[in-house]
Amino acid sequence: MVCSAKATSGIKLFPSQCQTAKIGIKILWWAAAISGLFVAMSAPIAHAQLVPVPARPGIGTGDTRRQVGVEDLPWSAIGRVQTELGGRCTGFLIAPAVVETAAHCLWIAKTGHYIQPRDVHFLRAYNRGQFASHARVARFLIPPGYDPRREALTAAYDRATLFLDAPAGTPTQSLTVAQNLPAPGDGVMLGGYEQDFREVVTSDMACHVMAIVADGNGQPMISHNCDATRGSSGAPLLVYRNGNWIVTGVQVLANFGRGGAAAPLMPVTSEKTQDDRR
């Protein structure tokens, strides 16, 4: 079977047996998908079956998302990442002036460069035109292992650290980062500003880690079954530990059906700035 789908905006597609789509800018076909199988070459082209991109990749037949308030953690740490070119993703505070999001949200395919930091804004606790705080991005870091031109191989590093020009919150309004990967079966939740509810945060609060999978270079990613679609790129995948919700990954990929995959959010070293990566 040969899978085919057009590029989409707001979320990248993650192929699992030719059935996953990318939450950001274009379709991502992996030689090693969640299932460990890639069957695109198993049938003659003459008998190819075209698989259209669903209107809401990442959403199952029974949508379990619901709107959540942004007054308290963990949702008060979440905000909308907006660019002056019209791009919108989700991001979240890990320190008063530091935000995490998906790296593909900052890539401009037409120019082959990342957007200028000053053209990126963070609106914490955005809700129907209101927000708790606003700051511009002064600079950002992207792991050197991520290459937007080779997304199939480097999706595990599809994350960006944004350094704001002013604090957007306090330490108590920031999320804690996990120091290790979650285990299959761990309860998680995921929420962000998604295409069909872009003015509010919607969340699947009763989903699970399905497996630790690998990108095309063999780097770990977190497969989950949370309902989330376009616009959720950059949202935190939250795991409950010791009485608190902490961040274990950054949402970057969506299945054709329910679920997707997150890039692990581990301590990062030796990363380059956006200016170094032009």
From TrEMBL:
The keyword Transmembrane applies. PROSITE patterns: TRYPSIN_DOM. The chain crosses the membrane at residues 27-46. The keyword Heme does not apply. Residues 59-278 form the Peptidase S1 domain. Signal peptide: none annotated. Keywords: Membrane, Signal, Transmembrane, Transmembrane helix. PANTHER family: SERINE PROTEASE. This is Trypsin-like serine protease. It comes from Acetobacter musti.
